[in-house]
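Dear colleagues,

As part of the handover before I leave the project, I'm documenting each prediction I ran so the next person doesn't have to rerun anything. This entry is a single chain, and its sequence is reproduced below.
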Amino acid sequence: SSRVLWTLAVTHSPHHCSPPSRSGKASDASSILGDLSDKFGDTVPVLNGMAVACMHTGKFEEAEKHLLEAMGKRSSDAETLINLVVCAQHLKKPQELVARYITQLKAGFPQHPWVRRLNSVESSFDRFASAYVPDVVA
């Protein structure tokens, strides 16, 4: 829906993904996270970090794989769900999928700063949208 797209577009969070770049920083992060994965296994934080590094280099399909693996390890993780929202938007996944992730976030993590900001933006959207209800001509 346009409300979901609008609210996601104006919600600023640390999970916002910059335009793809091939910078050395994302590559360095991937290398470090790969070392951590080798040493400690694919933990949820490591998989999330790998996904974010992939997103920063425009590899959203690969990022999604890491995030889905993280969900398999811990199905109720706020950071993974937030990153899945961002990734799904970039992959132009169906809005129903994005809405499902957001519903899970709101139900499981109502006090998370990202969820609180999203709720605030949605409330503002609803308030402004109600002011622009077109007059119905009979």
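Residues 23 and 92 are 24 Å apart (CA to CA). The two ends are 27 Å apart (CA to CA).

All the best with the project,
I.
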